[in-house]
UniProtKB/TrEMBL annotation:
Lineage, top ranks: Bacteria, Pseudomonadati, Pseudomonadota, Alphaproteobacteria, Sphingomonadales
Annotated protein name in UniProt: DNA polymerase
MF-aspect GO terms: DNA-directed DNA polymerase activity
InterPro entries given in the database record: Uracil-DNA_glycosylase-like, Uracil-DNA_glycosylase-like_sf
Highest taxon, organism lineage: Bacteria
Uracil-DNA glycosylase-like domain location: 99-245
Enzyme Commission number: 2.7.7.7
Organism, as annotated: Sphingorhabdus rigui
Length: 253
């Protein structure tokens, strides 16, 4: 058991430190670019093939009647999550983890589920997933502390996955949250966040920056792989780095 745990820990560390080498940010900054994207791209066999429909869209969301009034400010939202209020995604597990970060952030990061380490102030931000995300953002000049980080569900189901049939409701609720924060851009991590907010396949949505629409206001959206996918499949970091570079140039598009 000890050997297996040690092997797993070493693999996680290797994956994290490997990001810098792969991204070309572990050396002094110079005029020469790093041609690390020359390697063949790796397609995730677990993901479905891209569809022919490349219209970005924000497919219409079915009307939803909440069981209670949704909060009209982030402070109330956080407190309701902690109190176990029957908000969408707040009833899938015993631990309730509210969003993290300043509510006036220009960038919102959305994933499927929180990391249980973030439930405790003493362990928040210490997971391998968090550390890798922090380094990914730093590579394009974004400090994770400047971002508002949230998730489709604020509790973690026993399966560790969100069932597809609740994604439309979670996406509708997430749009409500975006209306409270009013960011200029969002980063969607993983296929569930992509499906809930864009109603699109992850591999297809990665081809370009999309828009999340809320009350007629378009918010620039990048879709890329969840850091836990990159830890499990380090070869995909090259594709993620290309995604991040596209996001870094969003103001010039």
């Amino acid at each position: 058991m000890g050997d297996r745990a040690e092997t797993a820990a070493l693999a996680a560390v290797e994956s994290l430190t490997g990001w810098w080498t792969l991204a070309g940010v572990d050396s002094a900054v110079g005029d020469e670019t790093v041609n690390w994207l020359a390697a063949d791209e790796v397609t995730d066999p677990a993901k479905p093939a891209a569809t022919a429909n490349n219209s970005a869209a924000n497919a219409p969301v079915a009307p939803h009647v909440p069981s209670i009034a949704w909060p009209n400010d982030i402070a109330t939202l956080r407190q309701m999550v902690r109190d176990g209020a029957p908000l969408p995604g707040n009833d899938l597990g015993p631990v309730h983890i509210p969003p993290i970060g300043a509510e006036n952030s220009a960038i919102v990061i959305i994933s499927d589920l929180p990391d249980l380490t973030d439930a405790d102030e003493a362990t928040a931000g210490t997971s391998a997933v968090h550390i890798l995300l922090e380094r990914m953002l730093a590579a394009i000049g974004i400090h994770i502390s400047d971002c508002y980080r949230t998730w489709l569900a604020t509790t973690v189901p026993a399966t560790g996955e969100l069932p597809d049939h609740i994604l439309p409701e979670l996406g509708h609720y997430m749009r409500h949250q975006l209306g409270l924060i009013k960011p200029t851009s969002v980063i969607l991590l993983g296929s569930s966040a992509c499906k809930a907010l864009l109603d699109a396949d992850l591999m297809n949505a990665r081809a370009e920056l999309r828009n999340v629409n809320h009350d007629g206001r378009n918010i620039v959206a990048l879709t890329t792989f969840h850091p836990r996918t990159l830890i499990a499949r380090p070869a995909m970091k090259a594709q993620a780095w290309r995604d991040l570079q596209m996001f870094a140039k969003r103001d010039a598009l």
